[in-house]
Design goal:
The protein contains 13 helices and 14 strands. The chain is globular, with a radius of gyration of 21 Å. It is an alpha/beta fold. Bound molecules: pyridoxal-5'-phosphate. The site of pyridoxal-5'-phosphate (PLP) has 12 residues, from helix 3.
Length: about 375
């Protein structure tokens, strides 16, 4: 039908290669990878191959990959698993005000229940700088956690620079790369990252599966009761989803440059078609083209969202939506202040390679009709 999906930062449709790789596993391999019989060995072989392939894509070794249920679990595992293990060395954590709740609320849990202290870096001129991180470092800082790319604005953080700074400090570096992986090449070892979180459903893989890259075994297990994942993540592996995830990432990385250019072109076409109506973009200088956080003067975002929805176009406000009520964005608040009109006017359009110029043309046309430009 004519429905247009422009909410790819929330989740992406699965790719054909991921669906077929997953289906094959579900049809042909039902053994438990931990079982020692033939069926188990067959499953174990697929699991090893998937881990090996993923490690190659990240230019690391298979023992650094831990399969999880997705971004939320990866962030919780890295932050809680590392900080509780190292709390004797210090109880200070540094993060940024624009992180996903899966990082902010996890750190807050450590603050509320385990006596940790957190420094939350606020963006300056819409950006987080490596210098801000450097200035916040203390003797007792044990973890720095920053995202790679922001899910609401597409803003890129200076990961390599922060990684470089942390080479001179014992604090570990955790990076929530959920919105960046598959869109740009990411090699955690080269970047000086100790923990990297990824989630398959953001790069055309299945939902409920992801991975955590960890540079060492120096973190506590979050789930207990099984020897899987080098005893760091108990529970029978979701083999079909793991195989589907790796197939999806491999394809996205093979086509990465082509996709990037296509997305950039979609953005250019869309913004050119908006000529004549007043809009502003919410983002810093360094950003991915995949997310377009845009506001239209005097247009309430919740109403705009609804009217686009009625026209068959799915976009988002970018902020959490609890029980159907749109909450204002903590990311835009950090960037522009709590009183900014941008908080009430901005919407998030997030793109994927499946989107066409025609989709963006329809969006621009519909927006113009709604806004009356
Ligand atoms: N981190 C970021 C930056 C995200 O955008 C998301 C998803 O919205 C998550 C973490 C959570 O990932 P998952 O849905 O796999 O738990």
């Amino acid at each position: 039908d004519s429905l247009i999906y422009l909410d790819n930062a929330a989740t992406t449709p699965m790719s054909a290669v991921a669906i077929s790789a997953m289906t094959k596993v579900m049809q042909e391999t039902h053994g438990n990878p931990s079982s020692i019989h033939g069926h188990g060995r067959q499953a174990g072989k697929l699991l090893r191959e998937a881990r090996q392939e993923l490690a190659q894509l990240l230019e690391t070794k298979p023992q650094h990959i831990f399969f999880t249920s997705g971004g939320t679990e990866g962030n919780n595992t890295a932050i809680i698993g590392y900080c509780l293990r190292h709390q004797e060395q210090g109880k200070h954590i540094i993060t940024t005000a624009i992180e996903h709740h899966a990082v902010l609320e996890t750190i807050d849990y450590l603050v509320q229940h385990f006596g940790f202290e957190v420094t939350i870096i606020q963006p300056k001129n819409q950006e987080i700088t490596a210098q801000q991180i450097q200035e916040a470092l203390r003797k007792d800082t044990i973890l720095v956690s920053t995202m790679f790319a922001n899910n609401e604005t597409g803003n890129l953080l200076p990961i390599a620079e922060i990684g470089q700074i942390l080479k001179q400090h014992p604090a570990a570096y955790h990076v929530d790369a959920v919105q960046a992986i598959g869109k740009i090449p990411i090699h955690p070892e080269e970047l000086g990252i100790d923990f990297l979180t990824a989630s398959a459903h953001k790069f055309h893989g299945p939902k409920g599966i992801g991975f955590l890259y960890a540079s060492s075994m120096d973190f506590d297990s979050y789930l207990h009761g099984g020897d899987q994942e080098q005893k760091k993540r108990a529970g029978t592996e979701n083999l079909a989803a793991i195989v589907g995830m790796v197939a999806a990432l491999k394809e996205d990385l093979e086509k990465q440059e082509e996709h990037f250019q296509h997305i950039q072109n979609l953005e250019t076409v869309f913004l050119a078609e908006l000529e004549g109506i007043q809009y502003y973009l919410n983002r810093g200088q360094h950003h991915l083209p995949y997310v377009l956080n845009i506001g239209f003067s005097s247009q309430k975002n919740d109403l705009l969202l609804l009217r686009l929805d009625l026209a068959g176009i799915s976009i988002s406000t970018g902020s959490a939506c609890t029980a159907g009520i749109v909450q204002s964005s903590h990311v835009l608040e950090a960037m522009y202040g709590a009183n900014s009109e941008r908080l009430k006017e901005s919407v998030r359009i997030s793109l994927s390679p499946e989107n066409t110029v025609e989709d963006l043309h329809t969006l621009a046309k519909t927006l113009k009709e709604i806004i009356g430009g």
